[in-house]
Design goal:
Elements (H helix, E strand, L loop, with lengths): L13 E5 L10 E5 H26 L36 E5 L7 E4 L11 H15 L15 E8 L9 H18 L4 E7 L2 E2 L12 E8 L2 H9 L11 E2 L2 H9 L8 E8 L14 H11 L3 E6 L6 H9 L4 E3 L5 H14 L9 E4 L3 E5 L10 E7 L8 E3 L3 E5 L4 E11 L4 E11 L46 E4 L1 H6 L6 H8 L45 H4 L22 H4 L10 H4 L19 H8 L39 H19 L14
Parallel strand pairs: 5-6, 5-10, 10-11, 11-12, 13-19
Antiparallel strand pairs: 1-2, 1-20, 3-4, 6-8, 7-9, 14-17, 15-16, 15-18, 18-19
Helix pairs in contact: 1-15, 3-4, 3-8, 5-6, 6-7
Length: about 700
């Protein structure tokens, strides 16, 4: 299954990096169409998935179907801007989860601080994905009244070797096992088989030469009828006399229930014995209730008795009824028929299905959903609910759902019994955890034991989860000189005239080679090998022009890497003026970052002040017409301080020369991160780092 795009198709979300924070020319900006980039990354990830599916299908018998969903979400993706949300979104945006969008109504969601909920399909999104999957591959044949009785089934043969003599039916089982497994495969081609044997508990002092086991697995689940048949044929009873054994029938069944059963398929234990089931098993104290509970936990397993003599006892009848099984007589020549009847019964019953598992906060109401239950005989007539898994049906409804409030802590299963129009019944179950805060983390390990936080996200790794941490350490700052602009705002920026620098340097004046005083053309040049940021500050004026500074043709190339240094006259916004752009020969360059005016922030009086474009201006500019009015005037003067004045301080007292609008960048950062995870499968977050002057 593919994934929806994580941004709407909009031209109005561009990350803009201002190379020179004192000028507003197009040439001083590096831009990135973040919305288009996110969508392109999503398209590339989907294409890669589709190609991998095609490659798999060329060399494997098991075919995989790729389902594309991005087009179904068109117009319902997240809005990339932090200033607005797509009112009809099917994907969570920041700080929300559980979104639902019905008909023409806007999406309604609830507040969430867990970052793992962000940019994930909401409830409506999951419903739409399910519809696309259904349209692509259809629905289960049982739900459409298809070929009934051929559902996959797991069958475990549990055979008594201690109290079942060969003449009681064991030899006949060995002789007919190949026909039996073939019969099961004919009814259910997807059937699997397992073989468990039990002998009894040894209470003698006799040394048998090997440790006598009360029960063990002769063959785990296999699709191979031949392997299962071979395991039955190799069963070997040992022991000199039954008087040395205590029955271990309960243990044999419990061993089978602990096998690796498949979820979502029918399940049956076929218990084969000539002896009655005792009320309480020696050594283990297992009773019929022990088997019933374990069967329900597995989802459940129906337990059928294949009676070689006296198995049809009150205790065995209780186990069969509690698990929706039956008991069939298997006298001489009847073993194959008894097994056939048991398998037919298991495959013909309705299907009881509860959604889940569920985790709910104590005292909260939980809606249990059994809408997945079905029957070929006219539908389901009634639903019986067991809210604590004790085997007592607490409530009966004709609806497929029920609301129940759990008033105490609970960790177990909820049971369901459905009855169809023909009177046939089936039992289902699902795990339910009722916890103090509504998540599944144990209190001793929960980093927010009183607050729901299923993912246990702890961004700052201080042992306190983000959901209950006043300072969670989530990224809140932008990179320096980065803001968000619409395409129209970028296009409206003026273009710097390339001849401004040339005309300034070509003007004749003193020091132009006639022996007069030094002029602009005689200004000392900066060694390209030296870093201007490392030069010593001075009160003499703005920094000097590095010879390798970007020209008009270079600065128009988008470059999101290391910032380049401004060219002549750009540091203070005074274009091509030799009197302000050229320092005296004795002046050393001032550090750029200490006096650089900020875009969207203002320094305190007495230091370098900046007039810039704030995120509030950006929000107003995106609101409608007159967007250009929100842009700063490129001709307006920008005062430059001495380099020793006050500077804006961010968190921790670090100098900040970045822009406002941090949430906009954070939104793009998270979206880009998620798109990157789709492409690479990476698990590491990335963040923008604030530049620091050294």
């Amino acid at each position: 299954m593919g994934y929806p795009f994580l941004s709407m198709d909009t031209p109005d979300y561009n990350l803009v990096w201002q190379r020179d924070p004192t000028t507003y020319y197009q040439e001083s900006m590096a831009t990135y169409d973040a919305a288009a980039g996110i969508r392109a990354a999503g398209a590339a990830a989907n294409a890669k998935q589709e190609a991998l599916v095609a490659e798999w299908n060329q060399s494997h018998e098991l075919q995989v179907r790729y389902v594309k969903v991005s087009d179904a979400f068109s117009g319902h993706e997240p809005d990339p801007s932090t200033d607005a949300k797509n009112e009809y979104r099917w994907v969570n945006e920041f700080f929300e989860t559980g979104g639902v969008q019905r008909n023409d109504q806007p999406t309604e969601s609830r507040l969430a601080f867990d970052s793992l909920e962000f940019y994930h399909p909401n409830i409506t999104g999951h419903e739409m994905i399910a519809r696309r999957v259904e349209a692509s591959i259809g629905v289960p044949r049982g739900a459409t009244g298809g070929i009934w009785g051929r559902d996959p089934i797991d069958v475990a043969f549990v055979i008594d070797l201690g109290y079942t003599a060969p003449e009681d039916g064991l030899d006949e089982m060995k002789d007919r096992i190949e026909a039996i497994t073939a019969m099961v495969k004919a009814r259910s081609p997807g059937a699997r088989f397992a073989v468990v044997q039990f002998q009894g508990f040894d209470h003698s002092d006799f040394d048998w030469g090997r440790p006598p086991a009360e029960s063990w697995v002769a063959r785990g689940f296999t699709y191979s009828a031949d392997e299962a048949s071979e395991a039955v044929k190799n069963l070997d009873p040992f022991g000199l006399s039954r008087i040395y054994w205590e029955p271990s029938m309960h243990t044999g069944v419990m061993t089978a229930l602990d096998l690796d059963w498949r979820p979502g398929v029918r399940k049956a234990v076929l218990l084969m014995s000539a002896q009655p089931m005792v009320a309480t098993e020696a050594f283990t104290d297992y009773q019929s209730e022990s088997i019933r509970r374990r069967s329900l936990e597995v989802d459940p397993v129906e337990i059928y008795g294949i009676d070689f003599g006296q198995l049809n006892s009150p205790v065995m009848a209780e186990v069969a009824e509690a698990t929706n099984g039956e008991i069939f007589a298997a006298g001489a020549g009847m073993v194959e028929e008894a097994v056939d009847r048991a398998i037919a019964s298991a495959l013909a019953s309705p299907v009881a299905w509860i959604q889940g598992p569920y985790v709910v906060k104590v005292g909260a109401s939980l809606r249990l959903d059994a809408g997945g239950s079905y029957s070929p005989y006219g539908g389901i007539a009634s639903y019986e609910w067991d809210f604590d898994g004790d085997g007592i049906w607490d409530q009966t409804t004709t609806d497929w759902w029920v609301e129940h409030e759990f008033e105490e802590l609970f960790d177990g299963v909820v049971g369901l019994r459905v009855t169809d129009a023909a009177g046939s019944q089936a039992i289902g179950s699902t795990p339910v955890l009722v916890s103090e805060d509504g998540d599944s983390a144990p209190n001793e390990a929960d980093n927010c034991p009183r607050t729901f936080n299923w993912s246990q996200t702890d961004s700052d790794r201080d042992g306190v989860g983000d959901e209950c941490d006043d300072t969670p350490g989530v990224l809140i700052d932008d990179a320096d000189h980065v803001t968000v602009m619409t395409k129209g705002q970028i296009d409206s920026l003026p273009s710097q005239e390339p001849e401004s620098h040339a005309s300034a340097s070509q003007e004749p004046g003193p020091g132009s080679g006639d022996g007069s005083e030094p002029g602009p053309s005689d200004a000392p040049q900066t060694d390209p090998s030296r870093n201007p940021l490392d030069e010593t500050a001075s009160d003499a004026g703005p920094p000097s022009d590095p010879v390798d500074g970007p020209g008009p043709d270079q600065s128009s190339v988008p470059d999101m890497g290391r910032p380049q240094q401004p060219g002549v006259g750009e540091a203070n916004g005074q274009e091509g003026n030799p009197e302000t752009a050229t320092p005296s020969p004795s002046a050393e360059a001032a550090p750029l970052c200490s006096a650089t005016p900020t875009l969207g922030r203002s320094a305190a009086p007495g230091g370098g002040t900046g007039s810039g474009w704030s995120s509030a201006d950006a929000k107003d500019a995106r609101a409608g017409e007159g967007a250009h009015s929100a842009l700063p005037d490129p001709a307006a003067p920008h005062a430059v301080g001495s380099g020793r004045g006050e500077t804006n301080l961010g968190d921790g007292g670090l100098p900040v020369t970045g822009v406002a609008g941090g949430a906009g960048l954070r939104r793009a950062s998270v979206a880009l991160m998620l798109a990157g995870l789709l492409l690479t499968g990476g698990t590491r977050f990335f963040s923008w780092r604030r530049s620091r002057c050294q």
